[in-house]
Amino acid sequence: MTTCRSDLPQPPTPPGLFPTPIQLLLLRACLATAAEARAAWEEWSSLVDLDHVDHESWYLVPLLDKNLRAIGVTGHPWLGRIKGYRRYIWAKNRSLLARVGQMVQELRPIVGENLLIIKGVALACGHYADPGLRTTRDFDCMVKPESVPHVLRHFKSLGWKIPRWIEGDWNRYGPDVETQCRVDQIPTSFCTDYPDGAIPPTPGQQSILSDDRMHIDLHWYLMPDLCGTAANDTFWDSAVPLRLPDGSEVRTLQATDLLFHCCLHDIFWPWFTIPSTRWIVDAVTLLRDSKSIKWRRLVDLAEQLRYTLRLGTALSYVASTFPRQICIPEEVIQFLLNRDHSAEEIGDYQERMGLPPNGQEYPRSPMIFLHPATFSPSVFTDYQRFRFTYYWRFWVRSVPLNDSWLQEIRAFACFLRVRWGLPKLWLVFVIAPFRAARRIYRKYFFSAGRARTAATLGLTT
After folding, report:
1. How many domains, the chain?
2. DSSP state string for 116-152
């Protein structure tokens, strides 16, 4: 039986994953042309206070300035501030890109050619007419998993702050990088007690901070829920060259893969308190050059990695919101939304959209939405619930997304080794039977003995 999106319960109101009406006005002012952009600008500027605009909207201000100049808007008191902010972002991006060029040269001896520039820097340098139009706060790069320990050591030796790097104290902060490398889980295990007030990091990536507030996001998996070497090899194999402003030659994702990434990375993170807008601008920028998009590859990626519902939803929203600016083949969207989806993909889509099977919307709270108690047993199997439960409680992604039961068992053992604080993986198989026996005794025999004693003494339990 084929399950399509129309068969799923729909929320009574548009989900908070998409831009608000006021954000949508700003997006139209940035991306539309002529009368449509002017009307959106006039309405948006009449509704908001520039001193209290959300941070997602500030990301769009450089593009807003460019479009307002193109359509001939003059005389508004905000234009001077908007122009000044665009110059500020241009200067910040120029400084960031200069540092990126230096770091690329530093990393060459460590990673060789196995370095991909992704996200903001790749889009700003490769697809925007002016790198200053795309607000870029940090530098995202991707390396092979086996290079992660060497890259982290390099930055640690230069005095950079790596929140998760507590060498020798892995019982408290999770296993060291070398240990996790041996079990193919580099580093994806955390606790909630971090030094220097650091925020718990995301699986598959590591934040690195310098004293002058330069921020690097080092990735070894493209996305947090895309774990495993095999799943990421396709992006390495199809990488294309990119020239940085200083002339450095690097590699980045091809346009199709960048579109795939930007449509999935920000939109479906329900703990964002403000809906993301950057992914829409990035997607429209990429789709304006539709000849560079390989639709067959995009569909194949979504099918292979089980993102058809999420990608179809994102593309459908962009196509319906900006029909005059971009052209997405209707058959692509219909195929993604109406194909035969797996139960796991449907469950993932429903949870991220806040849609349990009974059609009632989940309370959309950053702390409640992902709590295991909100997962419906009819959506997730027990094993899927196990994955998500322990990912939430201990920030562990020890279970890779693959179809091998041997890998699943091995990954589960890796999780137990971290959870129990064991130095060797083989100790899990020694200790697990004793812990299981103790749990059974406490649950059935010890509790039954206490109940009999209480009954004998005339006590209530």
Report:
1. 2
2. EEEHHHHHHHHTSSSGGGS---SEEEEE-GGGHHHHH
